[in-house]
Specification:
The protein has 17 helices and twelve strands. The protein is of the alpha/beta class. The protein has two domains: 189 residues, Leucine Dehydrogenase, chain A, domain 1 (Rossmann fold, 3-Layer(aba) Sandwich), CATH 3.40.50.10860; 166 residues, Rossmann fold, CATH 3.40.50.720.
């Protein structure tokens, strides 16, 4: 390995010894950009990599709120403004008990490269809290969101930092967050947050964007490798949240047979294909568990989750789309999927495959659509929402969907061209990292030592 890269990796691991997710994200990028670093010995003198792996700013704060029983609760809030080289900080908010500084930094670091790939002027950030919205009343969630935004509003703005949703932060939470921001600031700055309702500044296609974008990318990747698109392919999708649901919807539109989906308790499997409308009713309306699908479709099989192992990866499939959370697909899962003949993996979640799993897929000629490219549709459409807010003008569903499709096509081309430039074949993981890093490094050099 390049000596400079090795040095930076060693220093990063030592400085962030208790942050495994963050180091994993850094390691995955730095170990794939060696061909570019070899061409630019001046990067070392400029400490370009050292600056790129260090957040510009980390904000941490307490979030006190009162539950329905009158008991005061306290959670932690975070915002990691990692890199604003090419535009205002942009990235989602995650409300989940697993949230800690390592996860926030890894997500924000990934976001820098993802946002750069879109070709749009947005930097990278991420935020959230260890608050768990599951089992909470609407009033409890409202009170939490208002307390969270009371602090966060000091650090964000349409031209400063624009949050959005992520795990645990959907339309309900975005509404409460924006309402509190508007109340405190006493102005209508719709562009300060994305994923808003259509009634108050949201964009059509935003809800569908990450899932749709994933499938647009998969179509381009499959076509480029002599597979006949998604038509007739068997697909399994982990998760049943926003990304998974709309990846399923678009995959079905393109003729794929989606046979399995999951949640944190287990997965459902039906070889003839799942009824997405029933899953939407369970997840988007009733906020229930995916096992409830069996109440209407008793012939469906249900596999309970045991420990951290997801049973969905045991199912034979042509295409697997991990759309739940980070590191959900392990080396053992990769071996099972490969043995069962999987041809392609599409990362709908952020870093859902462990590094070992990704390396195993690539070594065994399984196509991998990396998260920072394949799931960039959400943030791309968020940037389109920001643009509409600035213009005080709204685009039609068809217009936004066409823009999204074109962006995902361009992202795939960037990954493909970068991989080919450095003789990496169809390693789109490396291609995505090289394409985005090249853009970011040029911006960093141009702006001086900051």
């Amino acid at each position: 390995m390049n000596a400079y890269l090795e040095k930076v990796l060693g220093e990063t691991k030592a400085k962030n010894a208790n942050e495994p997710e963050f180091f994993q994200a850094v390691d995955e990028v730095l170990t794939t950009i060696e061909p570019v670093v070899n061409e630019h010995p001046e990067f070392s003198k400029l400490a370009l990599l050292e600056r790129m792996v260090e957040p510009e700013r980390i904000i941490a704060f307490r979030v006190p709120w009162v539950d329905d029983n009158g008991q005061t609760r306290v959670n932690r809030g975070f915002r990691v403004q990692f890199n604003g080289l090419i535009g205002p900080y942009k990235g989602g908010l995650r409300f989940d008990p697993s949230v800690n500084i390592s996860i926030m930094k890894f997500l924000a670091f990934e976001q820098i490269f993802k946002n750069a790939l879109t070709g749009l002027p947005i930097g990278g950030a991420k935020g959230g809290s260890d608050f768990d919205p599951k089992g909470k009343s609407d009033n409890e969630i409202m009170r939490f969101c208002q307390s969270f935004m009371t602090e966060l509003q000091r650090h964000i703005g349409p031209d400063v930092d624009v949050p959005a949703g992520d795990i645990g932060v959907g339309a309900r939470e975005i509404g409460y967050l924006y309402g509190q921001y508007r109340r405190i600031r006493n102005c209508y700055e719709a562009g300060v947050i994305t994923g808003k309702g259509l009634e108050y500044g949201g964009s059509l296609v935003r809800k569908e964007a990450t899932g749709y974008g994933l499938i647009y990318f998969m179509r381009e990747m499959l076509n480029a490798n002599n597979y006949q698109c998604l038509s007739g392919k068997t697909v399994t999708i982990s998760g049943s949240g926003n990304v998974a649901i709309y990846a399923c919807e678009k995959a079905q539109m393109m003729g794929a047979n989606v046979v399995a989906m999951s949640d944190s308790n287990g997965c459902i499997y039906h070889p003839d294909g799942l009824n997405l409308e029933e899953i939407k009713e369970i997840k988007e309306v009733r906020r229930g568990r995916i096992k409830e699908y069996l109440n209407r479709y008793a012939e469906t099989r249900y596999f309970e989750k045991k420990g951290n192992e997801s049973p969905i990866w045991n199912i034979k499939t042509d295409i697997a789309l991990p759309c739940a959370t980070q590191n959900e697909l392990t080396l053992e899962d990769a071996k099972k999927l490969t043995a069962n003949g999987v041809i392609a993996i599409g990362e709908g979640a952020n870093m859902p495959c462990t590094k070992e799993a990704t390396e195993y897929f690539l070594a065994n000629k399984v196509l991998v659509a990396p998260a920072k490219a394949a799931n960039a549709g959400g943030v791309a459409t968020s940037a389109i929402e920001m643009s509409q807010n600035s213009m005080r003008y709204y685009l039609s569903f068809e217009e936004v969907d066409q823009m999204l499709e074109n962006i995902m096509k361009d992202i795939f081309k960037s990954c493909k061209n970068s991989a080919e430039k450095y003789n990496l074949g169809n390693n789109y993981v490396a291609g995505a990292n090289i394409a985005s890093f090249t853009k970011l490094s040029k911006a960093m050099e141009a702006q001086g030592i900051i």
